[in-house]
Design a protein that fits this description.
The chain folds into 3 domains: about 100 residues, Up-down Bundle (de novo design (two linked rop proteins)), CATH 1.20.1440; about 220 residues, Rossmann fold (3-Layer(aba) Sandwich); about 60 residues, no CATH class. An 8-stranded mixed sheet has the order 1-2-4-3-5-6-7-8, with helices on both faces. The radius of gyration is 21 Å and the shape is globular. It is built from 17 helices and 8 strands. It is of the alpha/beta class and about 400 residues long. Helix content is about 50%, strand content about 15%. Strand 3, helix 7 and strand 4 form a beta-alpha-beta unit.
């Protein structure tokens, strides 16, 4: 089908030829149902941004986010807390896109603007929301525990495990909103390589994610408002690797959802390499690989930008930050191997049609499990294709929470 041959074909033809721009727009529109965006704001903003114009893309989302952040502050000062809350949330959503597209010199400041918008939402939301500090390896993981009401009733609680670059404002529409509507507590957290731990503290990802999830479980089980028998975890995008990895070792969770499952993170990297480069990497020729990659990056600004953004959380604090070979070698550690056979936690696994990053891995993971699992397809005919079903989050909530309700009730 030709690109945008008719406006009503945007769903199938795309909002942009640039796959990153297109996916971002779909994600924002999908979060409208949870208050994370306003479709008119999104469509009006992209109308002024040409395909592939990264500078204009950043400027547009940054300007919109800043404008709404200022408006939200005025609404709050005028005691219009409901209006302020929704405006803060939308500001956080748009500023999170600006964070992703900011230059290295701008990113920290823009991230702090995004987090200020999110914190404004936390302070004005109708839900009971607390900032928490989760003990972790002599320090702490910052997080937010949000409850449906301010009572101390022990409730089913859902740990929200974000992906490689997801923000709290995106996770609001990707699970938190639906969980709170159904009476769950939800826990947001910044893990290693994520959000404040990356941008403000320079802490990278780690492959052994059980070392992250187990302290979170310890923290929640000590709280009187958490029902320890109804504790679950949800992992989105690259969280679809981290959550199964943790489940192979952490057995106190009653249920888990992965959206989708990821058995080997590196396939989304290696699959993009031309055959000669991949051969150099597989043969362990570090110097030749780094040399040829550097040459290629000089002639592909978009590729270089994407590589730098994706690689940073893996190599933060590393002494080999300029080595492409070392970065890919690190990414290869993020593979489940034979660990699925050790998982006993009941699992709900999404399997979207047209998965862009890890196609077939949900099915592969489900096949390796010996315990209880549901493999749930999502299709283009339902408006629910692509990675994490960006335009079908209400349908995703319905299916995964109906399963979770029934599983925890047992």
């Amino acid at each position: 089908m030709s690109f945008l041959s008719s406006p009503h074909e945007a769903f199938s033809a795309g909002f942009y030829r640039d796959s990153d721009f297109d996916f971002a727009v779909r994600g924002l529109l999908g979060h409208a149902a949870s208050g994370g965006s306003e479709p008119g704001e999104v469509l009006a903003t992209i109308a002024g941004v040409k395909d592939g114009d990264h500078a204009a893309w950043f400027t547009a989302w940054h300007a919109l986010g800043q404008r709404l952040l200022g408006l939200a502050g005025e609404l709050r000062e005028s005691d219009h807390f409901d209006s302020a809350s929704g405006t803060y949330l939308r500001a956080a959503s748009y500023l999170s896109l600006a964070v992703d597209s900011a230059s290295d010199s701008e990113r920290l400041e823009v991230f702090r603007q995004h987090r200020a918008a999110w914190d404004g939402f936390i302070d004005t939301t109708v839900y009971s929301a607390d900032r928490v500090a989760i003990p972790y390896e002599g320090g702490e993981l910052p997080g937010y525990l949000i409850r449906p009401s301010d009572d101390e009733e022990p409730r089913a609680t859902l740990i929200l495990n974000n992906g490689s670059d997801g923000s709290h404002s995106s996770m609001w529409g990707d699970g938190a909103y639906g969980a709170l509507a159904r009476g769950y507590n939800v826990l947001f957290f910044d893990g290693p390589g994520q959000q404040s731990l990356l941008f403000e503290r320079g802490i990278p990802f780690r492959h052994d994610w059980e070392k992250v999830v187990t302290p979170i479980v310890d923290f929640l089980l000590a709280r009187p408002d958490v029902d320890g028998e109804r504790l679950a975890v949800y992992g989105i995008s690259q969280g679809g690797y981290w959550v199964p990895r943790a489940l192979a070792f952490e057995k106190r969770l009653a249920a888990a959802i992965v959206d989708p499952a990821v058995v080997d993170v590196s396939t989304s990297w290696l699959g993009q390499l031309p055959s000669p480069l991949r051969k150099l990497f597989e043969e362990g020729k570090r110097e030749s690989f780094d040399r040829d990659m550097a040459i290629g990056m000089r002639f592909g600004a978009s590729t270089a930008r994407t590589w730098a953004f994706r690689a940073r959380p893996f190599r933060a604090g590393s002494s080999h930050t300029d080595s492409y070979f070392d970065t890919l070698t690190e990414v290869q550690r993020y593979a489940l191997g034979d660990l699925p056979a050790q998982i006993t936690t009941p699992l709900f696994i999404t399997a979207p049609e047209d998965e862009q990053f890890w196609p077939g891995q949900s099915e592969q993971f489900a096949g390796a499990l010996t315990g209880e699992k549901v493999l749930q397809p999502f299709t283009a005919a339902e408006g629910a294709n692509f990675h994490c079903q960006p335009l079908a989050r209400t349908l995703t909530d319905q299916r995964m929470f109906d399963w979770l309700d029934a599983t925890l009730a047992r």
